[in-house]
């Protein structure tokens, strides 16, 4: 479950967001992704309310820190604030939200330090390209990176060219954010043919988009959901399969990359 823009509405909307997160955990979802950037901590606070009465070992909690908090001291300061808002003693994964000016070696040093303290179980990065990952691997303890999180949906397929193969080779898990193109599908302009494929399969476009992202069982997608009905669609997407002809048609509508290109970001 993604949490971008969560906690930024009125009391009624926030209560609804708490209930949706609870619904997800009650129905088998076991990963929640958030960040100190989301509402400047408001999303983490909502997540903290939602997870209060759940077994902490039954799900994984991921948060991210700003690139200007990427020194050892500021990493720990940010982490302690996030843990307090989240009402938990540890994170399963802590991610550098995107690259900044702090040398990667210094950031890794800080992440390894909080890992040794037991404040996080593992760490990773977000919005990293293949060259970024290669540079990360060259610094001390850089090989301990467990996760990279990039934009990935039917219309943004740049990660397929080299990032997914690189991460598979080096045992780095991949998380794809914004399978629906963010709030109101703001960054996702779908062609009519996609709707035709969904109609032929008797599924919603949302179900098609999410099922497509996770089609190979090698991507963890983190959609945000604004209603229980939409959440039920997300759960159903995990059971949807595509025929070779359907995948070929979607490839024609939105071709896979044939060369290295700058990654899309939101």
TrEMBL record:
<dbReference type="Pfam" id="PF00248">
    <property type="entry name" value="Aldo_ket_red"/>
</dbReference>
<dbReference type="InterPro" id="IPR023210">
    <property type="entry name" value="NADP_OxRdtase_dom"/>
</dbReference>
<dbReference type="GO" id="GO:0016491">
    <property type="term" value="F:oxidoreductase activity"/>
</dbReference>
<protein>
    <submittedName>
        <fullName>Aldo/keto reductase</fullName>
    </submittedName>
</protein>
<dbReference type="InterPro" id="IPR020471">
    <property type="entry name" value="AKR"/>
</dbReference>
<dbReference type="InterPro" id="IPR036812">
    <property type="entry name" value="NAD(P)_OxRdtase_dom_sf"/>
</dbReference>
<feature type="domain" description="NADP-dependent oxidoreductase">
    <location>
        <begin position="1"/>
        <end position="254"/>
    </location>
</feature>
